Amino acid sequence: MPLTSKSLPEYWDTYKPHKGDGAPSPPVVDSFEWTQYPGHGPGAGFLGQPRTALELGSAEGKEAVFLARMGVETTALDFSPAQTARARLWWEGTPGLSFVNAEACDHLADTSATFDAVFSRWGAVWFTDPEKLIPLIARRLNPGGVLALSQAEPIEGFYGPQAMYGNGLSGRRLPVLRWSYSTEMWEDLLKRSGFTGVEASVLPAPEPDNVGTLMVRARIPAAPAVPSVPKRRRR
Ligand SMILES: C[S@@+](CC[C@H](N)C(=O)[O-])C[C@H]1O[C@@H](n2cnc3c(N)ncnc32)[C@H](O)[C@@H]1O
C-alpha cells in the first residue's frame, strides 16, 4: 500500500463537521488563534506586518478571514474539496480573500505568486514531508518574508513521520502521516532551505501538564541593499 497524499483530501473532508439541519452558519471570527487553547498564544502579530499571505491547510478559513479583514491580501489553500467549498460558502466575497483548492506542494511548485508571509496553523506543514514542502515555501516568499507555523508539540524521542489509520482500525486502509520534529531539528531544516532568524519553541499549555504548542517562525533574508553609485565629480 503506497503512502501517497492522493487519497487524503477525502479524509479531511469530514474535519470539523457541522451538525444540525440546514446550512451551517459561519463561526465568529474575532481572533487569530495559533494554539489549541482559545486566547492563548501570540495572535496575528506573530506574522509581522505582511501585505500578502498564504495559508497552507486553511480548512474553514477563520485565520485567513481574520487577516483579510485586517487588510492583508490573503490566499486560503486547502486540498480538501469539502473544506474549500464550505469556506467559500461562508467567506466568498470577503475583500482581499481568495481560495485555492490544491495540494500545497503541487500549488507552490506551479504558482509564480510570491508572498510576504506563508503560514500553517495545524495545517499542511504538519501533514506534509517538510523536506519537500519547506524548500518550495522558501521559493515563494518575498525577500524578508516570514514562514510561521504551529502544531502539537512533539513527543520527546518520537520524531519524523508519525502514521495512523485515518479510517480507524476496522475501516478501509487510509494511512495519514504527521511530521513531528524537535525544535533543534526544525532549526536545522529551515536553515538548510535558506531561512534565517529561526525561532522554534514549545509554548506551554495554560495547564502545564497539558499538551503544548510547537511554534516556529523564520525569515527569508531581505534583499541586500543596492549599493549607491557615487556621483561623478564635475571637472
Ligand atoms: C488539522 S486541519 C487544520 C485546519 C485549520 N488550519 C485549523 O486550524 O482549523 C489540517 C488541514 O490541512 C489540510 N491539508 C493537509 N495536508 C495538506 C496538503 N498537503 N495540501 C493542502 N492542504 C492540506 C487538510 O485538508 C485540513 O483542512
TrEMBL record:
Read off the Pfam families from this record. Answer: Methyltransf_11
UniProt xrefs under InterPro entries: Methyltransf_11 (IPR013216), SAM-dependent_MTases_sf (IPR029063)
Q: Which domain of life is it from?
A: Bacteria
Keyword Methyltransferase part of the UniProt annotation: yes
* Gene Ontology molecular function, alphabetical: S-adenosylmethionine-dependent methyltransferase activity
UniProt cross-references to CDD domains, sorted A to Z: AdoMet_MTases (cd02440)
SUPFAM superfamilies to which the protein is assigned, alphabetical? S-adenosyl-L-methionine-dependent methyltransferases
Q: Where is the Methyltransferase type domain?
A: 54-148
Question: Which UniProt keywords are given for this protein, alphabetically ordered?
Answer: Methyltransferase, Transferase
Q: Which GO terms describe its biological process?
A: methylation
Q: Does the keyword Transferase apply?
A: yes
Output this protein's name: Methyltransferase type 11
